[in-house]
Task: structure prediction
Amino acid sequence: MTGRRLFTRRQAIATSSAGLAGAMINLKLPGIANLEQDKLAIKGGPMVHPGSWPQWPQWNREAEEGITAMLRTGRWWRGSGEHVIDFEKKYAEMNGVKRCLATSSGTSALLVSLDALGIDAGDEVLVSPFTFVASFNVILMKKALPVFVDSDPDTFLMDPAAIGKNVNERTRGILPVHIYGLPADMDKINTESRKHNLQVIEDACQAWLAVYKGKKVGTLGDLGCFSFQNSKNIPAGEGGAIISNNEALMDRCHSIHNCGRPYGSVKTGSGYALNGGNYRMQQMQALILLSQMEKFSENAEKRHSNAMYLASKLAGIPGIKPVKLAEGAEIPAWHFYPFRFVSGEFDNVSREMFMKALNAEGINCSDGYDPPQKEELFRVTLSSRGFKRLFPEDRIRRWFEEVSLPSNDRLCKEAVIIYQSMLLGSRQDMDDIVNAIWKIYRNRKELV
Ligand SMILES: *Cc1c(COP(=O)(O)O)cnc(C)c1O
Result:
């Protein structure tokens, strides 16, 4: 194992220090492609990274005592103890924002936000297409129509220039997604939304404490939503949160998430003030979150520094296009490290073959999201009785026929992502990622 590592480290010096030029020289060395050590793992050669990667989630044993104590009291729901409120205070403080409401999941945070902002049946809501299904599921659940705004393939984010042409008299809201923790250009999005009088919900479900122009994402629109699902960078099994500086709006969120009971400025003579549901966080979730947040900053810094290092090294490899940060994006949360794989610059090796070869080298990677407009769920949902009553037939027909997301379609074909937990690895681990991709590049002709 040491021998393999030594060899790849030497290659690292040859390739990454001299960049593209180094690789070219390497390519011209007589017989290098035949060296047993440079044989692709997918073809039976040695793996660049035979070791393991940091596991996720990571448990903090010091939190066990507090959890056991809470369990023994039987005070498990938020109304019977202080832990959810403690979490809300802490998360608001970390985001530099007045209010935080904890919820049962990111999906419920989004649902409550749509409700609080008065997004109603028959409305239209603009949304990023390169995202997890929950971002547009919640719009459909309100019996509103999600309208996808094309992506900028360089940034993986909603293209602000494509917003205006999707607005019509039914459009009420916009839901930009800070996908992979990459801050979207919120100044441009807010300018467009003011112009068209739209409510802004930031889907920051992958963007905990990411920084845009000195501010935390989630504080830049009307409401910001987060997820703490098990795979996320702050995990609690399930969980979510809404943040905002707008007190009246947060009072509405609180009421709606608690069956419509009065809260703060949401008042009633007696009984229930609003139509709400039960989207409350449990005490157990809050205790797990409080313990996970202790290591959050240290982990976030490590991910960011490793991501920037990867970006600098990967930029020199033909066909590999590291994500470009949007204007104003300062510190992403890096839920994944994404890049685009351009097959045409890699001797037409397919992205699927490239990913197979990279996984074989011990570098876990995956593709991004599928084009959402092709999901079967739209055919089923938009042809329902309710949607037929709410929207003219012509509107639904045009939704299917005129949807045009050429940049996002291309992004979906080219995206490759590396897991956030791998960014918690060492510099040598990052060099392994870079070296594995160079190795595949050198041997690319074997993969077509
Ligand atoms: C995870 C996620 C959600 C939903 O969060 P859950 O907690 O799983 O309900 C929404 N949007 C995005 C972009 C996500 O990644």
